Amino acid sequence: MKVLELFAGVGGFRIGLENSDKELFQTKWANQWEPSRKSQDAFEVYNYHFPDSDNINISISDITDEKFASMDADMIVGGFPCQDYSVARSKKNEQGIEGKKGVLFWEIIRATRIIKPKYLILENVDRLLKAPSKQRGRDFAIMLTAFNQLGYSVEWRVINAAEYGRSQRRRRVFFFVYHNDTDFATQVDSKFENQNPVFEENKYDDYIFKTGLFASQFPIKQVPVKKRQVYYELSDDIIEVSDNFTGTVWNTGVMRHGKYYSIDTKSDYIGQPITLGQILQDEMDIPKKYYVTDQAKLEKFQYLRSSKRIERTSADGHTYIYSEGGMSPVDDLNLPGRTMLTSEGTVNRSTHFLNVKGKYRLITPVEAERLQDFPDNWTAKKKLSDGSIVEVSDKMRMFFMGNALVTEIVRQIGAFISELEK
Q: Least crowded by CB within 10 Å, which of 9, 62, 227, 337?
């Protein structure tokens, strides 16, 4: 299968797919572009590891229709930019699918319309299912409608990697998008050929709970949480969906032929997650620069992670109380790691802060890579346009991992598609 990787970063999707079935998944094209940056570090890391593919270092918006038409990709993958839906943004500044980053979703639709792949695998923050705050679920409903108009079905699931045995409590929504003329779609339809064509209640229970991609690879309890389930018929008109969507979108669902069935589900994984302590490097391998011994910095971490109530004044002169709950002074080594953010390489509240054998320290770039199931030192080097190989700064390596995904989740998704293609 020929693969196009969009918003490629440092290659998380490619690593996951190749770990699943390297012979089947052949990434032929990759696009990575970091706007507003002179240096294209992520692209250079990708290019260092994967010089054999057609690696495109321009904005996806600048890729011509003709270029896309030259790509006979069987599958498109990508973790498209999520800043407009991120929990790190205030609700006041939420722009959703109309924001500068959100509009890049339409470039995925453009590529899909031109290339007509069999499958897509996409990833985003789970907040997407609730965006924007004044019309929750609208943005996701628009995406479903756009794929429906192109003749595709969409299955989705919010996956917390730690709930399926990985070392990070990272919640992300994954999409499995497949064309309605694939063998898989035909098999799904054939199960219901003698049923009323109306999208009746419980029609897709077997798919959601047992036979769909996510049910097969990431098992769930066989009943909805608190009976939360919804059936909704989307308008064929995207403007109508944008203006008048009133549905609900839960963490699991499937959209077929413009109608979706969504359920709130819980993991039924029986194994144990990898703990933060289990992915740490040997103490002898930790450079001194990662240890925190300065008293002022120790006090800074103590303050950042403590509860607080602070009087603040807004830009218009309004006085208000900003409050923040407390968190553990250090990260628990007996639990999976917290979600990494792009700010991991700085001193802030979200930075992982460890106490290992009585010594305080930060996580290393290698440990950050392990939290995302990347190979050790994957981000250590990059290849410049002149062909020279140089080292990557720790700050950028942490930034990469804050932007990345858990590659083992992709490997399991790839395993299902591999079975479909046999």
A: 227
DSSP string, 154-179: EEEEEEEGGGGT-SB--EEEEEEEEE
Q: Which residues contact 86 (CB under 8 A, 6 or more apart)?
A: 125, 127
**Would you state the structure tokens that stand for residue 250, as one six-digit string?**
């839960």
Is 352 strand, coil or helix? coil
**Domains of the chain, CATH where assigned:** 2-271+406-420 (3.40.50.150)
Q: Which two tokens stand for residue 237?
A: 């008109």
Asked whether the whole model's pTM tops 0.90, one would answer yes
Give the pLDDT confidence of 83-142 residue by residue, as tens digits: 443 333 344 444 445 544 457 889 999 999 999 999 999 999 999 999 888 889 999 999
CA dihedral 185, 190, 191, 197 (to 10 degrees): 90
* Residue 406 to residue 164: CA distance in whole angstroms: 11
- CA atoms of 279 and 275, how far apart (whole Å): 7
Cis peptide before 132 (omega within 30 of 0): yes
Residue 27 to residue 153: CA distance in whole angstroms? 23
pLDDT digits (tens, 9 = 90+) for 141-167: 999 999 999 999 999 999 999 999 999
DSSP type of residue 128: G
**Which DSSP category does 362 fall into?**
E
- Measuring CA to CA, which residue among 405, 414, 408 is closest to residue 171? 405
* Tokens describing residue 303: 């303050």
Integer Cα distance of 188 and 180 in angstroms: 10
- Going along 287-403, which residue ranges are E strands? 308-313, 319-324, 353-356, 359-362, 381-383, 389-391
Active site residues: 82
Strand partners, 16: none
**Mapping DSSP to helix (H, G, I), strand (E, B) and coil, where does residue 196 land?**
coil
- Look at residues 187, 188, 213 and name the one whose alpha carbon lies nearest to residue 20: 213
- Determine the residue type at 272: Q
Q: Which residues of 107-117 are buried (b: 16+ CB within 10 A; e: fewer)?
A: bbeebbebbeb
232 three-state secondary structure: strand
